[in-house]
Amino acid sequence: MSDMSRYMEKTGRDAKAAAKKMAFVSTAEKNQALNNIADALITQQEEVLAANHKDYTAAESSGMGAAMLDRLKLDAGRIKAMSSDVLAVASLPDPIGEVFDMKVLPSGLLAGKKRVPLGVIGAIYESRPNVTVDISVLCLKSGNGIILRGGSETINSNLALARLMREACLKANLPENVVQIIENTDRSLVGEMLVMKEYINLIIPRGGSELVRYVGDNARMPVITGGIGVCHTYVDKSADIKKAVPIIYNAKVQRPTVCNALDTVLIHKEVAGDYLPEIAQELAKAGVELHCDERSLAILKAVPSLNAVPASEEDWGKEFLALIAAVKVVDSLDEAVNHIDTYGSGHSEAIVTENYTAAQRFLNEVDAACVYVNASTRFTDGGQFGLGAEVGISTQKMHARGPMGLKELTTYKWIIYGSGQVRQ
Amino acid sequence: MSDMSRYMEKTGRDAKAAAKKMAFVSTAEKNQALNNIADALITQQEEVLAANHKDYTAAESSGMGAAMLDRLKLDAGRIKAMSSDVLAVASLPDPIGEVFDMKVLPSGLLAGKKRVPLGVIGAIYESRPNVTVDISVLCLKSGNGIILRGGSETINSNLALARLMREACLKANLPENVVQIIENTDRSLVGEMLVMKEYINLIIPRGGSELVRYVGDNARMPVITGGIGVCHTYVDKSADIKKAVPIIYNAKVQRPTVCNALDTVLIHKEVAGDYLPEIAQELAKAGVELHCDERSLAILKAVPSLNAVPASEEDWGKEFLALIAAVKVVDSLDEAVNHIDTYGSGHSEAIVTENYTAAQRFLNEVDAACVYVNASTRFTDGGQFGLGAEVGISTQKMHARGPMGLKELTTYKWIIYGSGQVRQ
């Protein structure tokens, strides 16, 4: 066994032992740890900012782009926001210990389910250092241990944040090993992490599609895949244009770099001629570039000063993460549903319609984590859905689908109260 | 691409297309298909029995043992029982379409979850032909497609049963491809099946520990691991011996070849001297062989005509599936919990005690799918737990834990009703 393997195994063993203790920690103690973290982020911000400065200057001199540099950077305002987010998680109800589906069986046994932590969560993520704190506090609150593996660009920030969280846990009488961080940024350690089935109950990859795919294909333990959103908004022939325009604008423009942003507009042929120019003109105000199929391009050619180009086959099914949208005219609701089925990633899909049956059919027939009628796909978010916060958005079907909050980081066990029963 | 790969891909594609239609089939149509299957099992039993006879004679001449031969064999009585089981599933409530957790969000959106099928379930299983029908009808009722891959010993029986079920589906206007069977028993096809992530949403392995481990390690899609039960019953120092004896006897003897049968008796040192001989004598009536630690062996040596031998290290953590039990004297409840933690498989664990706090501690601290107080672990079963039936028993923590019935073969999607909302 190599030194690295030994190091990874020790990390796993320590996390598992800490997680076992975490399952019995009271809500008050967990909240105390979260309050300590929120405090420490403010009182020890100089250390965190100094570490982040190291990362920033290294990234800058290695030629990192401005957008990425901005994601990496921490300042007093961002630290304050992180601290507030931790307090928000502390104020959420504790999911652990809930007993549900309890019933008396014909045998006289009283049986039901009790909500318990999953164990140890492994997080493999990229760039933004606030993810380090976000995921950790959600795992802490739900009674789980966490092994963090962030990107090499933010290693100093992440180490400072993890140290701070470990101290805050210890001060609340929680095992400090409940938060573990892989200190070595060697890429081979990701591979080692993915086979640590004995120590890690669930892996959550957060990052680009390449990372998510790699983790999904190679992990031996369950993985929550998600965070990749190829999101469509379909404008039905009975759509209200007064709703369609702001919904599409919001879904594309409000925050184009996130997974629930719009990628493709589908529009019914009967309203495309009237509505598409209006939609396109609004998007043009934000500088959105449109990649159009033949029919939509023909319609939009007539509109002056639009940035519209022919779509290529790769534009369908592409997560743009930028001010770009694909546009396609469809013959029917059926064609829209089939297009989404072929090119969607199962994240968030919307219809704009005033027709009751079209709305119901879209809700029924589109197979995605979140399906909307007359609303922006940007609402797909743990906070917006009333979960308080999220570790990510699942686009898979097992365990949890859509935003994953505290409850989604738990499992249950059957508890059965008998009085001497035996099976006949 | 080889012929086999092409064949597997076609199977997957057909199953996926059929499953997509299944999601919209009414409860009445699904029940009609199940009723047709139940009828056909009776009316077409001669074909099934003839196919089964082929399997039986081939297995017999290849030297298969009597117990395995018995598992393989079908007769009119067993066919009748299979048919009744299908009708029982037909009578269960349809889980699909249930809407839950619906609430109005601060944005005015009405959002909640709707229960939908998983898609295509792959089943990889061994020997008993009734599993072919059991799993298929549960998948049908829950709106899923199924790809069956049974053992080569039962291939003729399985093909006959699958053909019968496909015809029954077609007669009920369901797509016949909703039930697919891998007709070729070449082992390499299991490997091909495990990478068909695009077509199979969930794999359920049912068989020995080697099969379950192989599938768990090699499948690219989610897997429900389970069915391996290393089950303990702990006799606490405050146990009522009048409960302990029948509970242990039932857990070990009533059906020793199944996963929820007892494997190890743990007993508190303060009562071991009094209780162990009584427990052992009862087990001896059924011819149970005891593999004892040093302390229990010393106690049991004094008892005449017992079949008690020293335990080896491998006896702890062993699923005997036979009339054998390991026995160990422990110093405390803590030692019992730690032993279970080290050697258990997370299936079913029981304590026998009259002490309230010991019962609560055991329920809290033992990490398993099903944890019992004063009852036989043999109750871990979908039927016994009120789920109607089960495809298997999950010993993993994700998605579902314990017996998996119809609801556990579903997922949900978020449905969101808006009136033009955009995110601020």
Sum up the structure in keywords.
homodimer, 424 residues, alpha/beta, Aldehyde Dehydrogenase, Chain A, domain 1, Aldehyde Dehydrogenase, Chain A, domain 2, 2 domains, 7-stranded parallel beta sheet, 4-stranded parallel beta sheet, 16 strands, 21% strand
Describe the structure concisely.
2 copies of one chain form a homodimer. Chain A contains 14 helices and 16 strands.
Task: Write up this protein.
- The structure is a homodimer of 424-residue chains.
- The longest helix of chain A has 20 residues.
- With 424 residues, chain A is of the alpha/beta class.
- Chain A contains 14 helices and 16 strands.
- In chain A, the strands form 4 sheets. In chain A, strands 10-9-11-8-7-12-13 form a 7-stranded parallel sheet. A 4-stranded parallel sheet of chain A has the order 5-4-3-6, with helices on both faces.
- Chains A and B meet through strand 2, helix 10, helix 14, strand 13 and strand 16 of A and strand 2, helix 10, helix 14, strand 13 and strand 16 of B.
